[in-house]
Write a structure and sequence with these properties.
By secondary structure, the protein is α/β, with parallel strands linked by helices. Helix content is about 40%, strand content about 15%.
Length: about 200
């Protein structure tokens, strides 16, 4: 399955089944938008995980959404967690429908956790909440994974505080970090990898 096509199809499928409250998370858009993880950020994460050479990598998708679809297309061992059970149920249903429509078998509907999963993972795609809520599981992420991608840690005015926190906290915990400018998208968003 063509990943960019599946990414767009995910938004259309989600929009058709989502409640009004959950559509609000995406500004009512039927397509990719500035609220969801970008295709570029997900692709940068995928490429970095592959460079690490993990054998059948275990992936934590911290923050359900479009990432829950694409990460399952690319990896077979994915756990998605999200604090909102209603939203996550709708993400799960979107993946179930896409699996049926596209015959992409890896879009199976297992390993969804309400709340933050504290298992050990090879890599985490961290797009948890917004504002101060983003800090809530920072330490869980870096303690449970060898590689973490912190989304939206760029220099836009809305994100600059998050970027500074990720850099400061990674350094305080003795972890290496690098900006993932290869994840830059049309909204000028990117993230930071922490190892």
């Amino acid at each position: 399955m063509n990943a960019p096509k599946l990414y767009v199809q995910y938004f259309e499928t989600f929009f058709d089944l989502a409640t009004e409250r959950c559509r609000h998370f995406w500004d009512g858009s039927r397509g990719p938008n500035g609220c969801a993880a970008s295709f570029e950020s997900l692709l940068a994460f995928r490429n970095e995980v592959l460079k690490c050479g993990f054998q059948n990598p275990s992936i934590l998708d911290a923050g359900a959404g479009a990432s829950s679809c694409l990460l399952r297309l690319w990896f077979t061992n994915v756990t998605t967690c999200d604090p909102d059970p209603d939203y996550m149920g709708q993400v799960q249903e979107a993946n179930r429908r896409l699996r049926s429509e596209t015959k992409v078998a890896s879009l199976k509907d297992d390993r969804y956790v309400v709340g933050y999963s504290r298992e050990k993972f090879d890599a985490t795609f961290y797009d948890w909440g917004s504002g101060p809520q983003r800090l809530e599981h920072f330490d869980d992420a870096i303690q449970s994974s060898k590689l973490v991608y912190f989304d939206d840690a760029d220099n836009r005015p809305l994100s600059a505080w998050w970027r500074e926190e990720v850099i400061k906290l990674a350094a305080l915990r003795g972890r290496q970090w690098r900006e993932a400018k290869e994840a830059s998208d049309e909204f000028d968003r990117w993230g930071i990898f922490v190892r």
